[in-house]
Amino acid sequence: MEGTSRTLPYTIRFVGLLGSHSLGRNSKFMATAVDLGREFIRRKIKLAYGGDSVGLQGAVASTVFTNGGLVRGFIPGYIATRRVYGPTYAYGVEHTVSSNYYKYFEMNHAVEAFIILPGGVDTMEGLFTLISWASKGLHNRPIGLLNIDGYFNNLIKFLDDAEDNGIGPMEQKQWEKNEVRTKPKVVFDPPPF
């Protein structure tokens, strides 16, 4: 069964993933990343991610790849050549791109939706790039935050406050289309309302 959503006029077959290059201190992050990878396999959804084999992204990619799923990694050349995160090994097909910006650009053209895992500055750069592009009409792909253990609560409040004050990233309530979920099994499902 492929991932579906009643909020979209099409079936989700290819999802882009952004998330931390480390596992973090919260053991729920790693466990949820592995569960998310299993959900990709169960729903026969292909994965595009930031390349490399480390952190939460690597945990999802490893789970998908070792269980026979299709994985495409988009890794900036400076990370691949300088081994910023240690030895570089991508699962599946790896595409080297010139910068983080082009990583998001290429992923955006390959996928039908995005899932954001907990992460730091690089993850937030990607999330805000995608939000900015959506606000300018450059893409209309859903962006799902996997809010493990309340990780994104303050970010969601910030975005809602900005919108409520008329200076937010979207003129319309974009987050009504984008989802905030806490469990991998429901991240692909339609909202409960």
TrEMBL record:
Q: Which GO terms describe its molecular function?
A: hydrolase activity, hydrolyzing N-glycosyl compounds
Task: Kindly state which keywords UniProt assigns to this record, in alphabetical order.
Answer: Cytokinin biosynthesis
EC top class named in words: hydrolase
Q: A Gene Ontology CC term for this entry?
A: nucleus
What Gene3D superfamilies does the entry give? 3.40.50.450
Q: Which residues cross the membrane?
A: none
BP term (GO), one: cytokinin biosynthetic process
Cross-referenced SUPFAM superfamilies? MCP/YpsA-like
Reaction catalysis annotation: 9-ribosyl-trans-zeatin 5'-phosphate + H2O = trans-zeatin + D-ribose 5-phosphate; N(6)-(dimethylallyl)adenosine 5'-phosphate + H2O = N(6)-dimethylallyladenine + D-ribose 5-phosphate
Q: What is its EC number?
A: 3.2.2.n1
InterPro entries in alphabetical order: LOG_fam
| Biological role stated in the UniProt entry | Cytokinin-activating enzyme working in the direct activation pathway. Phosphoribohydrolase that converts inactive cytokinin nucleotides to the biologically active free-base forms.
Report the family membership: Belongs to the LOG family.
What's the protein name?
cytokinin riboside 5'-monophosphate phosphoribohydrolase
